Amino acid sequence: MRPPLEGLTVVALEQAVAAPFATRQLADLGARVIKIERPGAGDFARGYDHTVHGQSSYFVWLNRSKESVELDIKADRALLDALVDRADVVVQNLAPGAVERLGLDAKTLRAARPQLVHCSISGYGLTGPYRSKKAYDLLVQCETGLVASTGSPDAPAKAGISIADIAAGMYAYSGILTALYNRERTGQGASLHVAMIDALGEWMSQPTYFSRYGGESPRRTGVRHPSIAPYGPHRTSGGTVFLGVQNDREWTVLCHKVLRQPQLAARFPSNDDRVAHVDEITAIIEETFASLTAEQAGELLEQAGIANAQLRTPAEFAQHPQLAARRRWQPVDTPGGAIDALLPPVTGWDPVLGAVPALGEHTAAIRDEFGLRGDQSALQE
Q: pLDDT per residue over 313-336, tens digit each?
């Protein structure tokens, strides 16, 4: 099946995580993504670590199927302008104000080509007192209340992944797809902007509502749910099992079929009652599980139709039997050797799983394509 975005060209003035995450989704759908990188250094995410065949785990995750061009965006404007002139989409997450100074902002580029879809990602938006403030993932987690809402009662904690970057990248991706759909109907492109504080702020809406209108500070409850019970870890004779009860019906089933104490259903009839007495309920559940292993407790919950899970490490996730059974890992080439990559979450067509590029791997070919092979200014510091 023809990839749905085949024939579209994306020029990516990108770095780190947020914009590369968005453009990799476009590449998975068949778009040609031309990634502009600093001569000699490249996207600084290349240097975050060297754990994947000598390369960065971040970079190999975010940059498959792209073409890497080393280009000095200040000095080598002939090639850059030629690329932008052919682009359907331009995506950028450079430092605040950089594209305006370079004449690569949406207003300037779309004045000449109104059909262009231009998407910028920033930390805090184009206006307001934080508009020029640097924004990295952890810092946006702090500003949106995520860190204050995560962790134990004694200590806050950040999320274990680049969640602010991922949120911004996903909204950029969905916004670009929406703009391309609208262009098919109207012939007009779009000037899009995604602020990390807005993207993660949307995901923080529920705890924000709970705190603002409930009149209390965020509840940090470790791996328990702060406002649903029982929902979280429970000890067994060998290991821990996680379970989740979402409603009163499931609570009644748990009391009758797992705990064998039907009177508890009437004693704690609502979720508010269960949250208020979560320590007592946890003790009752763990007493039932005291003679069982985590696997046996999980099987008992499964038979009763109660949602449950094992606590897995990322390495164990890579060996997850459900992913193996569904063939969700597929090989992708990198400069250091092949790796296993997860297929995109949305199914319905075969994704493009091209190689992760070496720095500048496609520079010469693209210069030839655009008739600019003799111009070597992009290779100068």
A: 999 999 999 999 999 999 999 999
Are 84 and 165 in a shared domain?
yes
Question: Where residue 215 falls among pLDDT bands split at 50, 70, 90?
Answer: confident
Q: Which of 249, 244, 252, 264 is nearest to 306 (CA)?
A: 244
Beta strands in the chain (DSSP E): 9-13, 32-37, 66-70, 89-92, 117-122, 151-152, 155-156, 190-195, 231-235, 240-244, 307-310, 329-332, 339-342
363 shares a domain with 254: no
pLDDT, tens digit (0-9, with 9 covering 90-100), for 232-263: 999 999 999 999 999 999 999 999 999 999 99
Structure tokens at 128: 């307001």
Is residue 145 located within the same domain as residue 179? yes
Reported as a single tens digit per residue, the pLDDT across 72-130 is 998 889 999 999 999 999 999 999 999 999 999 999 999 999 999 999 999 999 999 99
Distance CA 69, CA 82 (A): 13
Amino acid at 145: G
At residue 374, the pLDDT reads 58
- Out of 50, 118, 193, 225, the active site residue is 225
Same domain? 157 vs 264: no
Task: State how far the Cα of 143 lies from the Cα of 334, in Å rounded to an integer.
Answer: 36
The answer to the question of residue 62 being in a domain is yes
With the C-alpha atoms ordered 242, 244, 249, 255, is the resulting torsion angle positive or negative?
positive
Q: Is 256 a known active-site residue?
A: no
Give the 3-state secondary structure of residue 140: helix
